[in-house]
Amino acid sequence: MLLAVGSVLAADGVSGRRAALVIGNSAYEHLARLPNATNDADRIRDVLERANFEVTLGKDLDKKGLEETILGFLRTLNDGDVALFYYSGHAVQVGGHNFMLPVDATLATSYDLEVQAYNMSSLLEYMRETSSLQIAILDACRDNPFANNSYYVGQAKVAVEGKKGLASVAPQDGTLIVYSTAPDRVALDGTQGLSPFTGTFAEYALKPNVEVRKLLSDIRAEVIKRTDGRQTPWDASSLTSSFFFVTRQNLLIIEDMREVRVPPSPKEVALRISPPITSGNAELTISFTKLPDQGTLWLGDQQLSLDSKVSADRIEEVMFKPASADMTGDEVRYSVTTDSGRSASGIVRVVVDAQAVAQAPVKPALTIQQGDEPKPAAPEQAKPILVAMASDIGTGFAAMPEEIVRSSAPTGWLRLEKRDPETQVAVDGQIVSEGDLIKAEDIAKLRIRPSLKLVSASDTDVPVAETVAMAPQSGKADTSTDSMEVKPIPLPADKTAAQPPVRTVVLMPAVKTVAPAPITINVAVSVNECDTLAAEPLDVQAVADGKLPNDIDVAKALVACKAAVDQHPEVARFKYQYARALYAEGNFKEALTELNAASDAGHVRASYLLGRLYQFGAAVERDPSRAIPLFETGAKRGDPYSQYALGKALVNGTGTKADVERGMALAERAAESGHTYAMNLLGSEYYLGRYVKKDYARALRLFQESANRDDVYGMVNLGVLYRDGAGVEKDQARATELFEQARAKGHPSAGRLLGYMAVQNGNANTEILLNWYRESAERGDAWGGYFAAKLLKDNPALQRDSGEVVRLLALSASQDTKDVSADAKSDLGKIGSSDVAKEVQLALQRSGQDVGDIDGKLGARTRDAAAAVLGTDAPRDSRALLIALLRKEWIESRPRLDMLGS
């Protein structure tokens, strides 16, 4: 009989998941260098990985690197239980906010903070939306790095008060904020390779079963001692539950009762007491609490007493020596105690049996055997089990292959001996740590999840000879019970060297043996082809860098994403990416179905795109108000696209009551994450001064940042400033260069702006001008369509056909753009009804409808055809009908909605 003292928690789903972001910035380019910050980050990474965190590490990050690293961290959260953020580097407080500074920060002007720093409160809010408990550990503020005396934070220009250190922020429920030093004080960088706080934290954090608030109290006392009172760590907590960095499983498993049958004889016999098993490799003390009445106990040539202590790995060697051959039976009792104080007691009964064979081998009850066939009791003869699996990133916890469960299942207890830091291991819905024990019969419940972090190109360059066999598409795995069989993974035709990285998990028999037989599980990790083909940039739930809509290889993406959805119907990300491919193909009906499914399953970027469709009336009836709650969902999760779209809607009052202050704040959050459209929105408001005070210098800084990130709107906006000399010296050549760059990259209005500038300068070529305007009209620029129509009226010989002016005006009117679409509609009203009706018939014909002769007469047949194309009752007015048809035709040309205003 086995007695297990303690228990393993179980839960529905997988509980206990932890994700951490660790950043260390040392090599500052314009501020004082911090030699220990990257060392601090490395040390904390090691500690947190041992505490079962999935760690996203960033060192010496510039602003773009900081944005990318934070995005990578947000991708790993995915509704986990604990989210932790550690930062070592320069940080400043301005206006009650704490900002971390990347290594390329200058803080030279009042406008630099909003584009060069990252507000830590933003990160905490995103963590709260995706985890039940949040911890921030800030070992920052070693010096005051200000190069300026005031900075813009939102709409306010805040004077720096000369305070050093960080501001104390009141945490919301479920949050713990730890500061390496007291508020408004400077932390020490340290002289021993680590900061005093981080060095102490690393020493204390892995102490098992110490609640975090007690742990911090101990750390505080030690840092005060080590710094002679110059530094006092600080924390602010609103935790509503206990948290332990390390919770030792605390299992102690012994054979609580065994019976040894021996023949009548005065010879000594082996009791064969099975070695106790404990989780975490805890130290064990074994002592006897009752000695035999009719004999003595021996270990080698040493007689044991009640004061004797026996090592756990030698307990099998204890012998019982009867006092005489007349023994009728006896009993021995012993106690096992762990270093944490847990104890259990066992009994060995010696029964005299005339039928027993002297020194008959007695198999210890806890010996691990593996395989179907009976094996000799000696554990050194057991053979290793090797398992090769394959798993795509972001597809959840992969189950053990059926082969290992069915045909090679071990018995007894196993210990999780090794876990690659890039993996998480769960059993029966609970995360397990290195040192934890697993019942062998529970191996069928074992699950392995590769890290949600991106697999970099360098990480896939694994030599073929080092790669173990990968499971085939059926999900089956290769196993071997003799030795490691190295097999190359079959390569796609277009790849000759890249191999997926392999993550390793090792289970060992919990009973120590001379030749242990491990179970080694190698998981070949890859990115699903759907992710590489159809993920979207800055998607907080993606696992690949992403592609812009017009860069999707539609044919390949459709096949890959359909397969991914079929194989992983529970993964919302694949539904969204499949919807992107369907939309790019022009299959709006199916795209909408997948979008709704992905949005309902919690994919925030799907909610964002649905909102954009409602704003534009693409594939759905136009209703901007329905976009707002969809944007709200994504904005809370830290999706910069949603933050930007919601911010813009609030600033303009599109689909919701205008709220300029909140809208601008949301745009600032998106810009902080590197979303260039948000930078353009902010810059445009400061340039135009519609809702905020004009500030050309601030607009210039935002547009420069956007253009430097290769954003076409940033280029155009910056070009406008150079064209007009707003906040910068007037430079027509620079403006032209920026407009040309943006036009080449697909900006809707860049061609029209080039034309406008040429007209203003008096050097316009009519045909070139017309081509620019036409191109802008086709890309969705209402002004381009209107200008092209006016130009053709004056130069009718340049028309492609007699109806081009009508189409351009209708297309301009269909964009519903302020200050121009109404004029286009008015001009369209001055054109003869017959000419408009002919364009209606031609539009229907292009849509595949049979409308008979193109005669400019709209009868019932034509209107039925229009209703079939539009999917609703056709407008009675021919001009309204043409506008609706051209709008639908333009949408079906699959324009870049992300590049257009709402």
How are the SSEs ordered, and which strands pair?
Layout: E1 2-5, E2 18-24, H1 37-50, E3 54-59, H2 63-77, E4 80-89, E5 91-94, E6 97-100, H3 113-116, E7 118-119, H4 120-130, E8 131-140, E9 150-153, E10 156-159, E11 175-179, H5 196-204, H6 212-226, E12 234-237, E13 252-255, E14 257-262, E15 269-270, E16 277-278, E17 284-290, E18 295-299, E19 302-303, E20 319-322, E21 329-338, E22 343-352, E23 385-392, E24 398-399, H7 402-407, E25 413-419, E26 423-427, E27 430-432, E28 437-439, E29 446-450, E30 478-480, E31 502-509, E32 519-526, H8 529-534, H9 554-567, H10 572-585, H11 588-600, H12 604-616, H13 627-636, H14 640-652, H15 660-672, H16 676-688, H17 696-708, H18 712-724, H19 732-744, H20 750-761, H21 766-778, H22 782-794, H23 804-814, H24 821-828, H25 833-846, H26 860-870, H27 878-891
Parallel strand pairs: 2-3, 2-4, 4-8, 8-11, 14-22, 23-32
Antiparallel strand pairs: 1-13, 5-6, 6-7, 9-10, 11-12, 13-16, 15-20, 17-21, 18-19, 18-20, 21-22, 23-30, 24-29, 25-28, 25-31, 26-27, 26-29, 31-32
Helix pairs in contact: 1-5, 5-6, 9-10, 10-11, 11-12, 12-13, 13-14, 14-15, 15-16, 16-17, 17-18, 18-19, 19-20, 20-21, 21-22, 22-23, 23-24, 23-27, 25-27
